[in-house]
Amino acid sequence: MTAMSAREPARADVAVIGGSGFYSFFDEDAADVTIDTPYGRPSAPITVGDVEGRRVAFLPRHGARHEFAPHTIPYRANLWALRTLGVRQVFAPCAAGSLTPDLGPGSMVVPDQLVDRTSGRTQTYFDGGGVHVQFADPYCSDLRKAAARPGTVEGGVLVVVEGPRFSTRAESLWFARQGWTLVNMTGHPEAVLARELEMCYATIALVTDLDAGIEAGGGVRAVDVFAEFQRNLGSLKTLVRSAIAAAPEGACEACRVHEGVTLPIELP
């Protein structure tokens, strides 16, 4: 794998934000790109290469050695760096707990809604200027359609918690009673930052466990979550590759939300 600085002409139009297992994702030789942003460095250097005939950027969400906990991930730097490379579409595979026994470990879900239960995370680039982005449908319908391959579950509500702890049994039961489908720690503010940068964004959630209120016993353990994710990583990578191949090029109209608005900052 070669390395280059951001001054060299590294470009990509699609990004994958996921786990370190995606480093072996590319069809041919890939290059690492180091980028500085107004919000600091992203989680790790970004790897750019070819996947299914598209130019793809890969960014490990938690860092190359999983050094960032969910609440310390530099979300703003990550999305800004990807847009700097030309990215306009983002697939975001992640691990999630299930809030219904109908979705057991190994299920892959393409949610269509998000509930934010985080606290203290910076979730905007616009600290002034009266900018309010449309976010009723947080995931791009074009990318969701591309990811909805045979065997996936289409639709569902992802509730994002602060972490790094797992939910209590009472919290999990509360989430389930609301009709929410999945629980995760990293889906927000990633989705809204992508929207503010006018990038199409879709999550592909791999179910690693039944959440604490759904399954009797000792509750969720990180070691089991990591092991289940690793067992299904090959299938998840295959799904993401097929989604990239099926996605139309460029940002869709619905995700270009700043028409007629004067922004207080210039987007990269």
UniProtKB/TrEMBL annotation:
The keyword Transferase appears for this protein: yes
Site (Important for substrate specificity): 167, 222
Binding site for substrate: 185, 209-211
Gene Ontology cellular component terms for the protein in this record: cytosol
SUPFAM superfamilies per record: Purine and uridine phosphorylases
Reactions listed under catalytic activity: S-methyl-5'-thioadenosine + phosphate = 5-(methylsulfanyl)-alpha-D-ribose 1-phosphate + adenine
Keywords: Glycosyltransferase, Purine salvage, Transferase
PANTHER family: S-METHYL-5'-THIOADENOSINE PHOSPHORYLASE
Complexes and interactors: Homohexamer. Dimer of a homotrimer.
Family: Belongs to the PNP/MTAP phosphorylase family. MTAP subfamily.
UniProt-recorded name of the protein: S-methyl-5'-thioadenosine phosphorylase
Organism whose genome encodes this protein: Rhodococcus opacus
